[in-house]
């Protein structure tokens, strides 16, 4: 995959599906009485509280959680786009994310990609991870 935009969009789609959708789905399932136990000091009390809310209040809670997840991902992507400040004080450095393609398992083990496409370009605006994720959210 030599196209940086395609590689970036693939990365954003994976972040969207694996983080945004799965965290939101887990939250929805965990807040419902039949869901998995919550990671809190008293999961039963939290599930009982949520179940006692009217449907409108439950939807508001879900929307707050959804926005929290989105903002968390956007904050992470801003740093990966190298717009979150200096990575190493006094040094020129950046976080570089590549989609690397390997010929076989041995080349993977030896970190010898046959192709590497940078996903987060330096000094980019319209083709940033953050912008790509916002675009993905608009396409829900």
Strand residue percentage: 5-15%
Specify the helix fraction band: 55-70%
Give the total of domains: 1
Uncertain parts: none
Write the element-wise H/E pattern from the N-terminal end onward. HHHEHEH
What class do helices, strands and sheet pairing give?
mainly alpha
- Average residue-wise pLDDT: 78
Given the C-alpha coordinates, what overall shape results? elongated
Strand order of the largest sheet: 1-2
What is this structure's SSE topology?
Blueprint: H1 4-31, H2 43-52, H3 55-80, E1 98-101, H4 105-109, E2 115-118, H5 129-138
Antiparallel strand pairs: 1-2
Helix pairs in contact: 1-3, 1-5, 3-5
Structure description:
The protein is mainly alpha-helical and 140 residues long. The protein has one domain (4-138). The protein contains five helices and two strands, in the order H-H-H-E-H-E-H. It has a two-stranded antiparallel ribbon with strand order 1-2.
């Amino acid at each position: 995959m030599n196209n940086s935009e395609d590689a970036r969009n693939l990365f954003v789609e994976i972040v969207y599906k694996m983080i945004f959708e799965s965290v939101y789905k887990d939250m929805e399932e965990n807040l419902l009485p039949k869901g998995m136990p919550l990671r809190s000091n008293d999961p039963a009390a939290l599930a009982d509280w949520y179940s006692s809310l009217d449907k409108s209040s439950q939807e508001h809670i879900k929307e707050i959680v959804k926005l929290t997840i989105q903002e968390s991902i956007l904050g992470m992507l801003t740093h990966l786009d190298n717009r979150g400040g200096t990575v190493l004080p006094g040094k020129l450095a950046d976080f570089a994310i590549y989609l690397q393609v390997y010929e076989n398992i041995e080349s993977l083990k030896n970190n010898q990609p046959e192709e590497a496409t940078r996903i987060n370009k330096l000094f980019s605006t319209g083709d940033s991870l953050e912008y790509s994720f916002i675009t993905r959210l608009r396409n829900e």
